[in-house]
Design a protein that fits this description.
- By secondary structure, this protein is an alpha/beta fold.
- It is built from 14 helices and 13 strands.
- Strands 1-2-3-4-5-7-6 form a seven-stranded mixed sheet. A six-stranded mixed sheet has the order 10-9-11-8-12-13.
- The radius of gyration is 23 Å and the shape is elongated.
């Protein structure tokens, strides 16, 4: 199951407000009716969770909303809304459908908010949660929030919110290293499903150039301190879009090249399997295999990319790494200590998709994977 998180489009705030409000009605009716009663749920849905109010939040009150969508069905499955205030980033809304709560969406939403907080130089992220909402309180505590005080708020209509204020406490920014991983845009060989590897160097096609133009602004929001890129043309063309936005220099690292596919360069997967039945068997059973006789295995690529990523990570800094699909998949698996089957279970990033890794001390964490724009 693939989940995509996108920011609500301010230019279509009315439409986005209707999408979010419809999702809010589904989540609130299911989850909050037992906690605060049907009457208060109906009141909240008609006021702060209404389509008009959400649209006004976006257009007039400085709120930013993100929507999580199931890529297979297009169904909205969660949303998050926050606003920058004088001394904090206030997380006003973070809700996920019950059937999608085991997919790390809250962590991904929070990671987006943390980078907003850092860019805005705000000291903290705060939220309010109903005192009787034990499940959500436990989930927030697991994410790193702590309770700082209790408040009672008159919300009108004869209703009150009896809440805890919770605050996100994180390791000091000087202790956290962040890697933003960005796969290159589409080439003609991607469209034809041909092995490119490090052996061929086709440029981006028109679709790939459009992908880069669309996603570069989103990637640039992370304000990387350093950009490190594969030397292959398709990666360099992708990196150049963010370099121009940030007026930044890029370091080229040969280790970030894609898998060496040996004699299979230019072949499709089916053609390679027809030439080498043992490769077909290895794919069938999910086993690692040396590509094109003289090429690399997946675990060898993982070790090469993993070593490069470790050197790219610097405490307190954000590094943008522009590389390739299989290479990044196996490199992340290497950092996390995964086997080949475990690494392959992580779907290859789409062209121009972005992922985020953080390291605190010696501990790596995958905060976001395959975010498309």
């Amino acid at each position: 199951m693939e989940i995509r998180i996108r920011e609500a489009d301010a230019e279509h705030a009315g439409e986005e407000g209707r999408v979010i409000a419809a999702l809010a009605k589904e989540i609130w009716t299911e989850h909050y009716t037992p906690l605060i009663g049907a009457d208060q749920v109906a009141y909240m849905l008609s006021t702060v969770q209404s389509p008009q109010r959400i649209a006004e939040d976006i257009e007039q009150r400085g709120y930013r909303y993100w929507i999580a969508e199931d890529e297979e069905t297009g169904r909205p499955v969660g949303y998050c809304g926050a606003v920058q205030e004088a001394n904090r980033l206030f997380l006003s809304k973070l809700y996920v459908l019950n059937s999608y709560r085991a997919h790390g969406l809250s962590r991904q939403f929070l990671n987006l908010l943390e980078h907003w907080r850092v860019a805005a130089e705000l000291p903290t992220i705060q939220l309010t949660v109903n005192k009787t909402n034990a499940g959500s309180i436990a989930a927030y505590e697991k994410l790193g929030f702590r309770t700082v005080k209790a408040i009672v708020t008159d919300i009108g209509g004869g209703f009150f919110m009896d809440d805890y204020v919770m605050e996100w406490s994180t390791p000091g920014l000087d202790q956290v290293a962040t890697l933003v991983l960005w796969r290159h845009g589409t080439t003609d060989w991607n469209v034809l499903h041909r092995f490119q590897g490090s052996n061929a160097d086709p440029p981006l096609n028109a679709e790939g150039q459009a992908q880069v133009a669309m996603s570069a602004q989103h990637v640039a929001v992370w304000k990387p301190d350093t950009i490190v890129c594969s030397p292959l043309v398709r990666a360099r063309q992708t990196s150049a879009a963010v370099e121009s936005i940030l007026d930044a220099q890029v370091d080229i690292d040969d280790r970030l090249k894609e898998l060496d596919v040996g004699s299979w360069s230019g072949l499709t997967v089916n053609q390679a399997m027809a030439l080498d039945p043992q490769y077909a068997e290895a794919r069938h059973y999910g086993l690692d295999y040396r590509h094109g006789v003289t090429g690399e295995t997946g675990m060898e690529v993982g070790a090469r990319i993993g070593a490069a990523l470790r050197e790219c990570a610097h405490d307190g800094l954000t590094t943008l790494v522009v590389s390739h699909g299989f290479a990044l998949q196996m490199g992340v698996g290497n950092l996390l200590g995964w086997s080949y089957p475990q690494s392959r279970a992580l779907r290859v990033m789409a062209n121009c998709a972005m992922s985020v890794l953080t390291r605190s001390g010696d501990r790596w964490r995958l905060d976001m994977w395959n975010q498309r724009f």
